[in-house]
Each structure stands twice: as structure tokens, then as C-alpha cells.
Amino acid sequence: MNSSYWRKENLTSYCLAFIVLVFVCLWLKSLHIESSWQQAGLLNLSVGALMLSAHIIGKILKSFGLPLISGYIFTGILAGPYVSGFLSFDMVQRLGLINDLALSFIGLVAGGSLHLELLKKRIRPITFNVLFQAIIIFTAVFTFVNSLGQSFSFTQAISPVQLTALAIILGATAVARSPSSAIAVINECKAKGPFSETILSVTVAIDVLIIILFTVAMTVVRLLFAQTADAFHGAFFVVLIEIGLSVIAGIAMGKGISFFIENIREHLPLFLFFLAFGIARFSLAMSYLMETYMGFSIHLEPLLICMSAGFFVQNFTPSGFFFKNNLQKIEIPIYVLFFSVTGAHMNLQALSVTWPLALSLAGVRIFAILTASWLAGTLSGDLPQYNRVAWMGYITQAGVTIGLAQLAYRQFPEIALYISTVVLAIVLINEIIGPIALKMALYLSGEVKTNSN
Amino acid sequence: MKIFLALLIIILVVFGGYHLTFRQFKIPLFARTFYLSGLEFILLGVLLGPLFFNVLDENSIGGLEPLMALLLAWVGMLFGFQFEISILRRFPILQLLAAIGEGLVTLVLVFAGIYLTFGLFPEIPKNMKIIYSLALGAGAACTAQTGLALVASAHSIVNKDSLNLLRYISSIGGAGALIMYGFVFLLHPEPTSSVSFLYRIAIEVGNTIVACIGLLILYTLFLTKWRRSEELHLIIIGMAVLSSGMASVLNLSPLLLNFLMGFWLVNLSLEKERIFKFLISVEKPVYLMILVFLGAYFKLDSAWPLILAVSYIVFRSVGKFSGWFLVLALKPDSKKHNPKLGLALIDQGGLPLAILLDLLLGFRGEFTLIVVSTAIVAIVFNDIIGIYFQKRLFVVKSNE
Q: What is the pLDDT of residue A1?
């Protein structure tokens, strides 16, 4: 039996499974729900169906050369409240828990994928990329919005001060990346080498940098709106403390994981799963309790904690190999859930309202990424084959960007509507094209093992 | 926020408890028996529940119902995996019939006994009395496998043939009872329904058949090809979540529906070994979580309902004795076995507790809480004395 026949047969069984799944869901959704037990069942039914159909669509799209996560996101969009309504707004909200959990887990995977030896060798391109991308992307997006913002119908009525504030926030959010998408695509392709390691390291580093950059941006906007900016130094200092504490917490967590591996070993995937869940909730609870009882809060970043933990276990303990192997055992269910729920969160309404501005901004951002990555690659003496395609690896954006936009949304009601609508639309575009571009870049760089190489 | 805290605590307790109970402690058999009865996890659940610390309050428990449905689906599937026809056929058909018959005899006796005892509780509606009696009877028919396995492995034993027979009965006996338990869901009260009882039953049976067919087609389509472990795990988790949801939406039992799926997979799937390995890898944490949840639901305002527990223990003991006599009557080599061995079938194990949680979630209400709470008391009692009898009947004392 040749492989194309096998693939075709496999595809047929996936398509049939999808059809059966759709019929089962349509039938059950049409029933009258009365008790809380049935409500709970409806949630399980939706999550189960979402997982399985995301897996099926991911596999089908993969056979056309697209990344699995594009299939997961696409399924989420289809199932979400803006398209089919299979998942209601309330349900999507409740599934946000999965996002928190999965993001922490993905942090562990991302940290565990960084190898100190390789990082040391690639320190120049990584540093250049982080610096150039942060500066050039911010400047390009800021300049574009500030100078041409009022030409778009959506932002026509905005005042000049508000436009500058919006430009600053959009510039800062444009720098943010999606480590989860990057790690998922790199793992799916089993890409190995300096190119993929650089992309991952830059993405992770920018994820840390963006916290600082965004704090500075928020403070400047506060100044613009004549809100108090006395706390600038204080806020900056707090951010540094938060980052430092997150890294320390991550190291402690890494030590805990290493202890578990050396002494218990059994059920490690389950342990990591629950640990990730615990970290996500713990940091939120701590922030909430401090805010309530002390009047200020130090927000530990779960993603950063988990990245540090993964990095520590991989590079400073003998358990790195076992750790990574066990992570791989549960990463597929996590990715499927995370990206399909992310897809369900995608706001298509925002895109329909702001698509000219969103498309232009996405274009400007991509051009800025291209310039920055080419500059960084050239200055650090990277291979031309890497320089040509590096920009394709940095497009993805997801949860972190939306999270930042939500922060700004709460802080600045004057421009809240613009921020949330434009950012959601841009994220939607970048999250659709980003993974596809990254997968292409990995193949073009020659770091994906195929039958031919 | 509280629901997450509750879940975190449960996970921590279960995870830590599992490693302490099953892996770390090198303790004497009797103490281990106490731990293996799961009493400590039920007590932890009681402590976390509304009676004490209220970490698992009504809202939090309600929010965790999807997880409970998944746990029940997992247990059901695992139980279904014990019925691999090719293995069952290695034993004489009479032995199989005897094992199922033993369970059914216990079910009938406990059903009748409990139903009569419910005469003392006139405030419980008649249809609920039937439901409770049938569910308790089904749970009573089950026999724990852990205790017998522990006796078989830990000591020098006598009556090895009898012990093997009992282990066989303990693995099979609950099947008939679990299927009978499924009928409980046909009696589901629907206050808003205006259709006739028979029509409703026809609808429920039809729904069950359609749900089973849908799930079986999905399993077949997903498992026709060899899948990588990660993908297989995704499919199993996804299907378990989906089928638990289907069962709840249709007012069916997630336990029973997934028992049927497990039965199907073990007999027709080429991937049965890999699926079983995955399912069994989290078996104990799954059971322990069920115990904690049951503990959290535990509610006994007065000692009066404990009469139900006494009745349950008595009728079940009679049932197990009678069931054992049925086995002896059906087995041609019955003289080899001690007629008192019905006592070794007293230990109940985890499946009846899963049935109780299933009942609790499917038939919410004050009476259900009381019935389940008394049944928990009875089951824990049976587990503790059951293992004592097993030890008495099989273990050779070192100084003898």
C-alpha cells in the first residue's frame, strides 16, 4: 500500500468522523437542557467535540501543507460565537481557564526547548534581533498610526492627543509575540538548528521585554492624558521586581520539578499539568489578595515563571531529557485545546469594522519585522538563507497581545474602544498568517527533516 | 476563584495521598487495608466540604461537575476493559454464568431489602425508592478486586483455587449489575414532561442506542489506523470528555455509556493494549478524586437514616452468601471450595462508589444525598470487614 493511498484513506476517515461529530452535536444541541447536570454535560460535550474536530481539521489542513495549529485556530473560529455559535460567549468565557492553564504549560515547553550552549553561540543574532525588532516595529507602527490614523474611517473622529496615545499603545502591542504558536509550530515540524533556536529565543526574550516596554508606554500615555505620572519610577521599579521575582519563582519551581523527577518520577506529565495550573491560579490569586488587602499588587507572570522553570530544568539539572520527553506526551491535547479556544475568542466583528486599518497595520508590522530581522541577521553575519526568511518566523501574535490590550483598555477609557477593536483585528490576521509563515520559514531554512534532506 | 482553589486542593491531596498510600508507606497489611479502603480520602472530602471548611461549597462542587462526569466516564471505560471475550472464553461458560449470577442474586436481594426498608421513609416518592434501591443493589453486587489481589500477593495462602475463583468473580460480577443500574436512568423523573411513561422509556432507549452508535462509529473511524501515542491519548481524552457530556445531556449514566465503549474497544480495537495502558495509568488518582467528591457531598443530619446502612450491610451479606451458594451449585468442582467463602466477597471497592457519585449527579435532591451518605458508611464498613474476612479465610499465619 503506497503512502498516498494511505494518506487518502486516512483523510477519508477524518472527514467521515467530522461529519458524524457534527451530526451528533447538532442532535444534542437541539435537546432541551433543564438541570445543572445537563449544563455540565453540555460543557463537556462542547469541549470534547471542539478537541476532536480541531484535531481532525488540523490533520486535514496539514495534508495541504498548513501547520496543525492553523487547523486548531480555524476550528475555534468556526465553533466560536461569531460564526456557528456552537460555543456561546459564556462558554468561551468559562473555557478561558484552559487558556491560563495551557499558557503556563506552553511556558514550560518553551523554556525546556532553550539550550544554553546554543544560546551562547547565538548571542549576537538574538540580541540584535530583540533590540532592532523592539525599536523598529514600535517606531514604524507608532509613526504610521500617528501620521495616517485619521485617514481611516474607524479612527476619523479621534482627537490628536488620543491618536498619539493610541499610536503608542498599538506600537507597544505590535512588538509582542506568541511564544505558544512559535513553540507549537517548531515542535510540529521537529525543526532543529540555529535558525529555529534563534526564532524561539528571540520570541521568548521579546515576551519578557514587552512587559517593560508596555509599562513605559502606559506611563507615557498616562502623562498624555494628564493623569498622574509621578509613579513612573515606581511603576518601572515594580515591573523589574515582578520580572525578578517571576524568574526566582521559576527557578524554585524548576528545582521542585527536578526533585520530583529524581525522587518520584511517576506521573510526571500529570504533575506538570497540575503544577502549570497551580502556578497560573496562584499568581492571579496572589495579585488579587495583595490588591484587596494591601492596596498594591505584584503580579508574577505565570508564563515567565514557567519558562524560567523549564529553562532551569533543561540546562541546570540532569533531568532535562526526561522532562522534555514527558512534556511531549501531553503537548498535543494542550495545543489542541489552547489554540481552538484561542480561535473561539477571535473577534470577527472587530475585523469587519476595522479591516482597512488592521490590514494596513499588519502590513506595516510585517515590513518592520522584515527590516529588523534582515538588519540583525546581516550585522551578526548569519547565513543569507536565514536572513531572507527570518521575518516569516516573527509574525505570530496571540494571548499576550490581547492581554496587554485589555490592560490598556481598563486604564484608558478614552481610547478603550479603539484599542480593543484594532488589536483584536490585528491579532486575528497575524494568528492566521503567522503560523503558516513560520512553518514555511522553517522549511526554507532547511532545518526541518524531510525525506529529501 | 474558590472553585480553582478547591480544585487545586483536591489535586494536591489526591496526588500526595496517592503517593503516600500506594507507593511510599511500607506498613502492615491491616493498616494498608485501612488505607486501601479509601476512608481517609472520603474523610478529607468531608473536611473540605460544606460540613467543615467549606472549601468545596455548593457552587464549587457544581462548577466541578464536568470533571466528575469525566472521572465517571474514565472508570466506566476501565471497567468495560475487563470484559475481553477472548479471555473470558478461556474459562468455562458455567463459571461466567455463576459469576454474573452471583452479582444478580445480590442485586435482587439488596434491591428487595432496601425497598422494604424504605417503607420507614414515607416522605420519599415511590419512583425514587425504586431508583435508589436499584442503584444500591447494583453497587452491592460489585466485589473489590484490590483486597483479593493484595491477599494473593502479600502472604502465603491456602485455597489458592478458591482465591482464583473469587478473583474471577470479583472482576466479572459487577457487569450484570451495572447494566441493571442503567435502567435507573429510564425512570428519570421529568417534571416538565407531559408524555406517557412508556413513550418516554422508548425515547430514552432510542437516545441510548443512537448515542452508542454515534460513539462507536467515531471510535471506529479514529482508530482504524495506527496512531502515535500522543494522538491516541488526545483521541481517548477527547472521546471520554465527549461521551461523558453526551451521557449527561441525555440524562444517561456516563459510567454505563463508557462501560459499553470500553467493552467495545477491548474486543474490537487493535489498539486495546495501548488504550488500556493509558487508561490504567491514572486509575488510582481518578478513583481517589471520586472519593474526595463523595466525601464533600456527605450529609447526615441525624442517625435515623443509618438504619438504611444497617439494612444494606445485612442484605448484602445475605446476598453474597446466597450468591456464593449459587456459584457452588453451578460449579462441578464445588466440593473443593469452602462454603463460608461468601464472606470473602464482602469487600466492595471503588466501582460502587462511582455508582453512588453517578446516582448523586443524575438524581439531585436532598433524599439522594442522604441515601448516598448512608451507603458510603455501609460501603466503607464492608471494605474494612471484607478484607479482615479475606485474611482470615486465606492467609496462613506464620506461627501456625
A: 47
